[in-house]
Design a protein that fits this description.
heterodimer, A: alpha+beta, Uridine Diphospho-n-acetylenolpyruvylglucosamine Reductase, domain 3, Alpha-Beta Plaits, 3 domains, 5-stranded antiparallel sheet, 4-stranded antiparallel sheet, 18 strands, B: alpha+beta, Uridine Diphospho-n-acetylenolpyruvylglucosamine Reductase, domain 2, 8-stranded antiparallel sheet, 19 strands, 35% helix, globular
Chain lengths: 395, 477
């Protein structure tokens, strides 16, 4: 297999233009830490962003950072931390779940729209992504958006690139809006709630004026071990005030203990990275399901009465992580019957290659949306050479 | 009057009665407006210098009617200009003589409110403020708040990706929209998203938002609603120099504070607003900031104290911290009347570029020079947190040639915004107003990629076709 690591935009453009002329399908990648996600695609050649590295713009006072797409996420995080800032959307680290090593890139965070618990408050990666440069399937260098956060000039191709998994272009540079790091982070922890009650508590917290930035429920085999988490961030005085108010608001649900420091940070990291559910080496499939928060427990009930499932909730109940045994269709039918009935969508995040080529990784679309999806794909990549089949068969 | 419209299609004009008859079979009689008098009400929008009388106006009541009308127009090659309340400042809803206007204003009901899941599902003709009013009894609101929120519809907000004064904290329309019912030109009804976060597949919802009525017509929307903060209060800071105000904004953000609103006014804007609103603004400063924070009383006090302390090294000449609702209202009254007050002293055009905030002193100096070079005055109001600048270029309609000068000055200002790393429009949209400037921000490859995507939805350029893309060099996809 040929692998290319272009050093700059022109270089990338030339590689892709040549592949387009020859009709050579390309796998687009960063460091490959998430190569085991999406539908497996087999191509003769790959193009990696690792040769495109480095922060190109950082203006802390304007809360904006731009970087070449192959820049390690860790470098972005460290650069921001020097000025006490952070990526608002708390991107998940997939390595523990997938059992991979290497450096995730900022380009992949954009291309896969990777977010974490703070998504409920601060938006997803797509909400903070304000500019992209990419090479389309013709080999043309195209830009959309820019470096300012308020910009409605022309069609928003930035949003299309976020979450397109490289099927609409090879990202060469990405620009994100950033936020200050909070002075203090604190978590209220309630024990022993069942799923329905826990989600009610989280809804009450999220429907309060107290700016909750994390809302998760971690069930346990023994209900007494279940933990419900509500996170607050900000200036210390303000966090104190809101902790008190929330405790009062939630007192009908049980005693809320305040949980802070390293242990609390580690717990939120395990929520973000879904390692609460399982770590590598497990022989189970992992699904990520988005639905309306109060429908989360119903969705789980439908699944768990049919198959041997384990689960936890983030986003106040609206994000359900489910693991299922590697048998049959890994629960695809029962999970997607539930999303169809309740509204939402399910992504098969982790399963062996053979399973991910057999089972729809992304939620199947309606005919009308499929038509639009195919049209858009062709408008960026008429020869179908960019990550073919990574999201949907034949796309 | 320098913006050109495409030449009307004579064949369509000559078939007018046949087209009206066809439309008449699709919608209720009262939904079809054909008389010249009644059509006049739709000949322009917020960009009133430009007017075009449409073939007809259709105001459907259901998604099915919208679908039937669009399919008919596609089949008969009739152009369609979608319209919400017609408040666009960029001419996004201005008709064409050979087009029908398809207005959603009659579809204005709230369909569902779900406080536990924090969403509201509405028909797209509801006003922006109408959503907030429908959820206010539980202390909730819909966050994007364009200054036309009393009149503008959520359909128009989605088409323009509208912002407002509070987007530094809450984001713009695209960050608060979860789902839409979209009618495509061929009449197909598509559901995008729903009452949950982040749809699978391509982000079509994100693509539709800000597409200025060129990809389809939105008839229903699901939006996020938020619980309002316990309270909000502003502080007003006046500075002798523009640079000091700019540096103060940077220092506030560097301290980790994200105010819910951070508004800047320059000397002419202060003078004009104070004369009109008697808000107690300082008349001896070159720059003024209104900085609002939210929370409980104690939290607000704490935060405003921090802000005043941060401002200290920049030697503010005026420091006024609101202690009551009445004082807050007075501080906001001047800013909120900026457009109306300016309209009292002159005709004006309101520009809408965004700049990197660090460029503010340079950009304001250059704007002043540009206006002077045309012999015109300019007042600047500015969302200082996000870089969205609204220069009001003042002129006198009764003086021949002055409006053209104002348009030329406006063009120079927007080009300046692009030169310093910003963009042509932060929240008003391209419309016809900035259409011919698109080549300053985008190169041919950028624009062709946008037009190819547009072509997936409307290959024949029937949906709002006079807008957004320069008339020259259009791509048939």
């Amino acid at each position: 297999m040929n692998s290319f690591s272009p050093r700059d935009e022109q270089d990338a453009s030339a590689v892709i233009a040549e592949a387009a002329a020859k009709g050579t399908p390309l796998t687009l990648m960063g460091n490959g830490t998430k190569a085991a996600m999406g539908r497996p695609n087999q191509t003769e050649a790959s193009v990696s962003s690792v040769g495109l590295s480095g922060v190109t713009l950082y203006e802390p006072a304007e809360m904006v950072i731009g970087a070449r797409s192959g820049t390690p996420l860790s470098e972005i995080v460290a650069t921001l931390a020097e000025k006490n800032q952070q990526l608002p959307f708390e991107p998940m680290d997939y390595r523990p779940l997938l059992g991979t090593k290497g450096e995730p890139t900022i380009g992949a965070v954009a291309a896969m729209n990777i977010s974490g618990p703070r998504r409920i408050m601060a938006g997803a990666a797509r909400d903070s992504l304000i500019g992209v440069r990419f090479i389309n399937g013709r080999g043309e260098a195209v830009k959309s958006g820019g470096r300012v956060m308020k910009n409605v000039t022309g069609l928003d191709l930035v949003k299309l690139q976020a979450g397109a998994w490289g099927t609409l272009g090879f990202l060469t540079e990405v620009t994100f809006k950033v936020l200050p790091k909070p002075e203090r982070v604190s978590t209220l922890l309630i024990r022993g709630l069942d799923d329905v009650t826990a989600i009610e508590a989280l809804s009450a917290a999220l429907g309060s004026p107290f700016d909750v930035t994390g809302a998760a429920h971690l069930p346990a085999p023994d209900r007494l071990g279940a933990r419900t988490l509500v996170r607050l961030e900000g200036f210390s005085v303000s966090v104190d005030y809101r902790l008190n108010e929330l405790r009062r608001l939630l007192k009908g649900f049980g005693t809320a203990d305040i949980f802070e420091g390293r242990g609390a940070d580690a717990l939120w990291q395990s929520v973000r990275d879904a390692t609460v559910l399982q770590e590598r080496g497990s022989d189970r499939a992992v699904w990520r399901v988005s639905t309306a928060p109060t429908k989360g427990p119903d969705l789980v009930a439908r699944v768990a009465t049919t198959i041997d499932a384990q689960w936890f909730y983030d986003w106040g109940g609206g994000l359900v992580w489910i693991s299922t045994p590697l048998i049959g269709d890994l629960g695809a039918t029962v999970i997607r019957d539930a999303t169809k009935a309740l509204g939402g969508h399910a992504t098969l995040v982790s399963a062996p290659d053979s399973e991910r080529s057999r089972i729809d990784v992304f939620e199947p679309q309606t005919d009308a949306v499929t038509m639009l999806t195919r049209g858009i794909k062709a408008s960026f990549d008429p020869a179908g050479i960019l990550n073919p089949g990574r999201m949907y068969a034949g796309l | 009057m320098s913006i050109a419209f495409p030449k009307p299609d004579e064949a369509v004009l000559s078939r007018r009665s046949e087209i009206l008859a066809g439309l008449g079979r699709l919608v209720a009689p009262e939904a079809l407006i054909v008389s010249e008098d009644e059509r006049r009400a739709f000949e322009t929008d917020g960009l009133t210098a430009y007017r075009q009388l449409p073939l007809a106006v259709v105001l459907p009541s259901t998604t099915e009617e919208v679908s039937a009308v669009l399919r008919f127009c596609r089949d008969h090659g009739v152009k369609v200009v979608p319209r919400g309340a017609g408040t666009s400042l960029s001419g996004g809803a201005i008709p064409q003589e050979d087009a029908i206007v398809l207005g959603v204003a009659k579809m204005n009901r709230v369909l569902e409110v779900d406080f536990k899941n924090r969403i509201a599902r509405v028909q797209s003709g509801i006003t922006n403020l109408g959503i907030s009013q429908a959820v206010a009894h539980e202390g909730f609101f819909y966050a994007p708040d364009p200054s036309s929120q009393l009149a503008c519809t959520i359909a128009g907000n989605i088409a323009m990706n509208s912002g407002g004064a509070h987007c530094l904290k809450y984001g713009v329309t695209t960050n608060n929209l979860l789902g839409v019912t979209l009618v495509l030109l061929d009449g197909t009804v598509v559901q995008l998203g729903g009452d949950y976060l982040d749809s699978g597949g391509y982000d079509l919802l994100g693509l539709i938002t800000g597409s200025e009525g060129q990809l389809g017509v939105v008839t229903e929307a699901t939006v996020r609603i938020l619980r309002a903060a316990e309270g909000a209060r502003p502080a007003l800071l006046g500075f002798e120099r523009v640079e000091d105000a700019g540096a103060c904004v940077a220092a506030i953000i560097a301290a980790g504070i994200i105010p819910v609103a951070l508004e800047y006014m320059d000397r002419p804007a202060i003078q004009i607003c104070e004369a009109f609103a008697h808000a107690g603004y300082p008349l001896d400063v070159d720059a003024m900031l209104i900085i609002e924070v939210e929370g409980s009383d104690a939290e607000i006090d704490d935060m405003l104290r921090r802000i005043v302390a941060i401002a200290e090294p920049f030697r503010p000449k005026t420091v006024k911290v609101s202690q009551s609702e009445a004082e807050s209202a007075a501080i906001w009254k001047g800013r909120k009347s900026a457009f109306g007050a300016t309209g009292r002293v002159a005709d004006y055009i309101c520009m809408d570029g965004t700049i990197p905030t660090g460029q503010l002193p340079y950009v304001l100096r250059r704007i002043d020079e540009i206006a002077k070079s045309y012999g015109l005055g300019v007042a600047n109001v500015f969302h200082a947190g996000d870089g969205n600048l609204h220069p009001l270029v003042m002129f006198n309609t009764n003086k021949p040639g002055e409006m053209e000068k104002a348009e030329a000055a406006g063009e120079d200002i927007l080009k300046l915004c692009v030169e310093v790393g910003g963009c042509l429009t932060g929240e008003h949209g391209v419309g016809i107003e900035k259409r011919d400037l698109m080549t300053y921000q985008f190169n041919p490859m950028d624009l062709e990629q946008q037009m190819r995507v547009r072509g997936v939805f409307d290959p024949g350029w029937l949906l709002n076709p006079a807008k957004v893309f320069p008339l020259e060099g259009r791509f048939a996809a």
